[in-house]
Write a structure and sequence with these properties.
The structure is a homodimer.
Chain A: H1 8-14, H2 29-39, E1 51-56, H3 59-81, H4 87-100, E2 106-113, H5 119-139, E3 143-144, H6 154-160, E4 167-176, E5 194-196
Antiparallel strand pairs in A: 1-2, 2-4, 3-4
Helix pairs in contact in A: 2-5, 3-4
């Protein structure tokens, strides 16, 4: 299939990047409405839709969330991640937690509703919606990034957005206008991530992609 | 924002449905290649890409997977789900496990690689990719459905696709040409699933969507 015949979704998916620095330009409620509507169209176990999106625009709360993430990063995750990440990605993540994420004009705290779904099935019903959030932002020319570091301990982040015990913060997605143009994403080739029928049997379609 | 100004992604996301019945028409490797490429463009913690996709085309293995899902459904999940699902959804799911899913010309068994990511962060790095699988299939006019029932016990499904212990089956996505045209999805309104700054504060953008 020639690339010009491909539906637009594939180029949207292929150009999705993790944005961790943002301009001061605001994001309109209309755009957020579109993005959230897309998120709620994701599938969920038993169609229970166990999500709740807290759109954090308040400056003090955004700063508190950014501070929380920076604290976990600097206190623990930074030195764990340093040898595991390639240097360019490490620098980008480090700059993000060091201030870039705090510049986002809004952050969406994505909560999983334990009254609607058991904790064991919550992630499979929440992260498809989060991917729609990211793709929706990207489709509008906005940048976003999936972060889960604040959910390491759901207590403090839950307190910032006044989440009841039944709503478990599972991701924070800062959204804004990208401050930097990012190049293509780095991914292992599909052929090394796919098999035919049994693991280890080469998948023949990889060469044609 | 008028609907004709919206990027195509939003109508794609909005019309995504769970397809559980398929025609006999095959799905080409080129299409699977596009779909898998989109899946691998999803974000993952530390960009570790802890996914492996087993494209199951072999008829006996597909029948074994369908039989496994039917067994779990009939043995346990069916009576648990019956009072929890609306009747139309229950009937569709029941028909799917009763034979509809077995008709799909291929099933993608999505595995999480525990050598690349801790089990605790695996789901947030796998289900965004699964959502891209579903959207990619939909973009090509194919139907698909996210199922996790076979992962209740990763042993038997892992055995069918010869997955080593490090590859944990987390989802099975049957893909094929839809046998039925499905109407709009049923979702709770965004306004009931979103808050501004703190849980319970109405999000003002809901009315404008």
């Amino acid at each position: 299939m020639a690339s010009h015949d491909q539906p637009a979704f594939f180029s949207l998916a292929r150009t999705l990047r993790a944005h961790r620095s943002f301009t001061a330009e605001p994001v309109s409620d209309d755009h957020v409405a579109l993005i959230l509507d897309a998120a709620t169209r994701a599938p969920s176990a038993e169609n229970r839709q166990p999500w709740h999106f807290v759109v954090v625009r308040d400056e003090r709360r955004r700063a508190a969330i950014a501070g929380l993430m920076a604290g976990i990063w600097e206190g623990m995750a930074r030195e764990w991640s340093r040898p595991r990440l390639d240097p360019a990605l490490f620098d980008d993540v480090d700059r993000g937690f060091g201030g870039g994420l705090a510049d986002a004009p809004l952050m969406v705290v994505v909560c999983g509703d334990t009254d609607l779904a058991d904790r064991g099935v919550l992630a499979s019903s929440i992260f498809p919606a989060v991917q729609n959030l990211l793709l929706g932002a990207h489709a509008l020319g906005l940048g976003a990034v999936l972060t889960t570091i604040a959910s390491t301990d759901p207590g403090p982040i839950g307190e910032i957005v006044a989440a009841p015990d039944s709503l478990r913060p599972m991701a924070v997605v800062p959204i804004g206008h990208p401050a930097r143009v990012l190049g293509p994403s780095r991914r292992v080739a599909v052929g090394d991530k796919a098999s035919l029928d049994t693991v280890g049997t080469p998948w023949p379609g990889a060469a044609s992609s």
